[in-house]
Structures are given as C-alpha cells and as structure tokens.
Amino acid sequence: MKTLTTADGASITLDDEKITEFRSTLRGDLIMNDHAAYESARRVWNGNIDRRPALIARCAGVADVQRTVAFAGTHSPRLSIRDGGHSAPGYGTNDGGLVIDLSIPRVRQWLWRRQLAPYVRYFFSGSQ
Fold first, then answer.
1. Burial class (CB in 10 A: 0-12, 13-18, 19+), 23
2. Which of 4, 100, 101, 111, CA to CA, is 20 to 30 A from 35?
C-alpha cells in the first residue's frame, strides 16, 4: 500500500497491485522511498527545498511521460514535473505526491524539439 497526497491535500491509498501495474508500463524507473536511488532522485538544486514525494517516475521516453500523465489523471496525486531541477521555489518536487522526472536528456530533447517544454513548465508551475 502506498499513500499519496492529492492536489487538494487529501490522502489516497493505492494498493501494491496498482503500483506494480504502473511500474510495469514504464521503461524508466518508478522510485519510491524504499528504492536505493530515492535520496538522490528526490533532491533538487536548491538545498533549502527538502520534499519527499511518494513516487518519482524517471521517464525514459515519451511513452513513459504519457503513461505517467495518464496514471496521474486517474489517481489525482499532487503532481510536479522536474526538468533539470533548477526551480528556486521547488516547483519540481512535492511532499507525498508524484514527480515526473524529465531529466533524462533524450526526453528533454524531444520536448524542446517540439517546443512543448515551456507549456509543460507553465501548466505544472501553478501559474494558471
């Protein structure tokens, strides 16, 4: 069982089967707090930001991004997108939610080539 925080601050619990099913759809890693890479994966550039997301989807390609967004749409966790981790206020992470990690270069290159990255950043920064 994994408890996640939603965008409005409520808690939802996902059973292990849903987490395992989601993990099996990804080529990249799904990192939780029991993963060896969790501490390094959750850290952001600004050392004053110390947040602990429940799930970090380290996307290995566009299909991983699509599947992660679909998962987020179904379960409504608090959602952040990290694209390099240089957000001073810490928009690239959260406490208890899901982080979509786009820091793998080929994913960033795909987004930039299609000129989507500025829109992705705007949508998930809370600037709406």
1. middle
2. 111
Which domains, and CATH codes, for the chain? 2-124 (3.30.43.10)
Name the pairing type of β-strands 11-14 and 2-5.
Answer: antiparallel
| Helices of type H across 38-104 | 38-42, 62-75
Rounded (10°) CA dihedral 85, 91, 17, 36: 30
Angle CA 62–33–104, to nearest 5: 25
Phi-psi region at 85: left, alpha or beta (left = phi > 0; alpha = psi -120 to 50): left
* pLDDT the model gives residue 92: 86
DSSP category for residue 77: B
Average pLDDT over residues 63-84: 90
